[in-house]
Amino acid sequence: MTCFENGTNTNNTIRFTTGQPNQKNNDRIDQLAKPEWFKTKFVQNKFTEHISALMGSYNLHSVCESAHCPNIHECWSMGTATFMVMGEVCTRGCRFCAIKTMAQPPPLDPNEPENLAAAVSSLNLKYIVITSVARDDLEDDGSGHFAQCIRAIKRKMPQLIVEVLVPDFKAKKFAIQKIVDAKPDVVSHNVETVERLTRNIRDIRAKYRQSLEALALYRELSEGKIITKSGMMVGLGETEEEVRQTMKDLRDIGVELFTIGQYLRPTQEVRYVPVKEYVHPDVFKKYEQMGYDAGFKYVASGPFVRSSYKAAEPFIANLIESRI
Question: How far is CA 207 from the centre of its chain?
Answer without folding.
Answer: 16
